[in-house]
Each structure stands twice: as C-alpha cells, then as structure tokens.
Amino acid sequence: MKTFTTRSQIRQYLNAQGAAKVGFVPTMGALHNGHISLITQAKQANDVTVCSIFVNPTQFNDPKDLEKYPRPIEADKAKLELAGCDILFNPGVSDMYDDNEQWHLDIGPMEQLLEGEFRPGHYQGVTQVVFKLLDIVKPTNLYMGQKDYQQFMIVSRMVELLNIPVNMVMCPIERETDGLAMSSRNIHLTPADREHSLVLSKTLNWVKNNFDANNIEVLQQQAMEKMASINDVVPEYFRIVDGKTLLPANTNTQSIVALTAARVGKTRLIDNVLIK
C-alpha cells in the first residue's frame, strides 16, 4: 500500500497510474469491519482502491468531541494493508484547509432534519471536506456506509448540485453479532453501556416488523418510549421518513427508512433500518 500525505503527491501518483476505475472510501480513521467492508466492495469493482483518513475539524460542533476522536493510525494502516487497499491518503489539516476558508452549499431542507437538528453546521463541514477529497482523488466510484444514511443522501445531493462526475455506492450496515451497528464511537461504551446500546437495533427491527403506514406517529412515539425505558439511554430522535427526501413518511411514500440517535451513557450513537 502506498501512503501519501499531501494533495500534490497523491494527484501526481494517480495521474501517472492512469487507472481506468478508481474506487474511493473516505474515512476519519479508527477503522472497523464496517469500513473494511467498503474497501472490499471497492476492490471488487475498481482498478485502484483509495482510502482517506482525515479527522475533519469543520464537521465537529463540539471541540471536546474533536479532541477525543480516536486516531489509531498504525492500527488503521495494518487493517488497510490486510484488506488489500492500494493507496492511503492521510493529509494534515494544513494541507486540506487554507486559513479563514469559507464554504456554504445550499443543500435544502435535508440539512436541517434529524442529525442537522442536533448538530447544526455538521453537514456543511461534511460537504466541504468530501468536495475537497473528490477534487483531489477524482474517483469513478465513491463508497459510503448506510449507517450514515443522512450523510450519504446529503453527499449525493452535493454531487448532483455541483455536477461532480462520480458514482455513489451505498454499502450495507455491518453489525456486531448481537446487532449493534459497528462504529468508531463504540470503543467509548462501558460494558453496561454496550449492553444498553442494543436497544437501538432492537427498536429499529421492532418498528420494521410492526410497520403500518397508517400508524407512523404512534410507532415513532412507541419507539422513543422503548429506548427511554432502558437505563442510561436518552433517545434524541426516532423518525420514519421518506428515504429520498428525509421528510416525514406517509401512506404514499415509496421508499421508507427509520432513523434514530441516542446517547448511551456518555456516547452518542446513530442507527437506521430500511423499511421499504
């Protein structure tokens, strides 16, 4: 695996390779099997697979959250090597951002919903960095996980708005054997939190199995109550939405997703399930 830390190095190398198809997996590191499944999928359909590891400061609302974000770079490199990744792009903040850089993209109502409501400005930071990374790597295919469903939809909207020539690929959620969605944040869970965190996936599955388009409001309310009934779990939202717009679903909605976020102990977790 080749490792590059500057824009010019990686661009120069990719130009020289002249690969027909480049698959790209952008990450913030602290890699787990969820990330590795993206690398595996990228390898199957591309000539060259690129992974970026960059903890992006502009998408954190809370400086403490940014500070404590795990950065096990050596372990990450070993995992990528094992997965057969071709190129790692691991830039520093000064290589990605100039001083006082401004960015605003009008993504529409999707930005204010769900995560946007609880993490204002988060998706401006996400679109800002993904735009930069796409401009540097110029991939054929971009691989992102379903676990960050809203992020995938927002990046898709940016790609559409800015006419970026890349194909978006959503990869399924990888879960632990007991159902917990894999996440870099899971390492912060205490053993008790880890047990309590299962209420997220259990509630999502319960809603999927009991879904009734005429009772969406009731299902959302019941889901919030189920999660709140578990010790040290504070649900932030549980919404059943249109999978394309993220606006509330109704009896006519063709594509339906249930998404949730909750604080389990001191750790904030998100999860979702495709209902229809």
What is the structure about, briefly put?
This protein has 276 residues and is α/β, with parallel strands linked by helices.
Q: Can you offer a commentary on this structure?
A:
The mean pLDDT is 96. This protein has helices at 7-17, 33-45, 63-67, 73-83, 93-96, 115-118, 122-137, 149-161, 191-196, 198-209, 216-228; strands at 2-4, 22-27, 48-53, 87-89, 141-145, 167-171, 233-242, 256-264, 267-274. The strands form 2 sheets. It has a 6-stranded parallel beta sheet with strand order 1-4-3-2-5-6, with helices on both faces. Strands 7-8-9 form a 3-stranded antiparallel beta sheet. It has 2 domains: 2-171, HUPs (Rossmann fold), CATH 3.40.50; 184-274, Pantoate--beta-alanine Ligase, Chain: A,domain 2. Strand 8 and strand 9 (267-274) form a beta hairpin. The protein is α/β, with parallel strands linked by helices and 276 residues long. The longest helix has 16 residues, at 122-137. Helices cover 39% and strands 20% of the residues.
